[in-house]
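Feature request, filed as a ticket because there's no other form

It would be nice if the structure record came with a short human-readable summary line next to the tokens. Right now we just get the raw output. Example of a typical job, pasted below so the devs can see what we mean:
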Amino acid sequence: MLPSCLKLIAAIAALLLLPVEASNASWLSDLFKNKSQPDKSEAHVASRPRIVKHAAPAAAKPSPEPAVTTCDPAKFRIVLDVGHTAKSEGAISARNVPEFTFNLRLAQGIEEKLKAEGFAETRLLVTEGRARPSLVRRVAAANDLHANLFLSIHHDSVPDKMLENWEFEGQKRHFSDRFSGYSVFVSHDNPDFKTSLAFAELVAKEMKAQGLDYAHQYTQAIMGRYQHPLLDKENGVYSYDKLVVLRTTRMPAVLLEAGSIINRDEELKMDSTERRDMIGNAVAAAVKKFCEPK
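Raw output as currently delivered:
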């Protein structure tokens, strides 16, 4: 009997030891998995700068990645990112006006439209500094706001090799009347690509409904490294996977190139209140439809 008892005791001891080792292995695995996480959040905290206009008072943190099937406009938060900065102005128009000037005026108009439609939590994001550091700061600010949507506002140009010379107000300027139209971009690397694409398609459809045409040149080989796949052939939605503001935001993100400011005729239209109103109406309609029950 004694040998049998000893065998039984040894078997029980082995079973008791097994979960302890498995638990330790799991704990070590979790420790190493999480070791890199604080670095990312600390980088965002360190980069959170004085770049958010109309910032809301501190409140209880909502879910970091809200799932949207329907929404309350009064609580729904969309961040309107003004592309580029006063120091890094983006493209220069055919009449020598910086893209940043166009972006700011249009974003302010869209903000007014959205708030008039009841989207009181709309945030206008204006970033300072040089181009590359400003990308990190604007993404950190958007993530910190726990927004439901992120829309970056831009105006289009062409690669330098396509530019032609002309004279305006006694000065040599550059232009290209070859292309015109809006375009909408999303990134497959965004953590919620499907929702990003759904919102992008709504924006593009509403732009088209306003009688606007989209830019077709991004599928052409002449665009070189600026060539992008067309995801929605009817309405003009492209993918731009490596764009920082689209792939590193923690909410659905879309970039709108509202029109070409290097095209001399379209530049004048983009500078008009009428065109800004059309685009503002299109974005507001897209956000409203996005919030409708799915």
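Something like this underneath would help us a lot:
The chain has a mean pLDDT of 82.
The chain has two domains: 2-35, 50-291.
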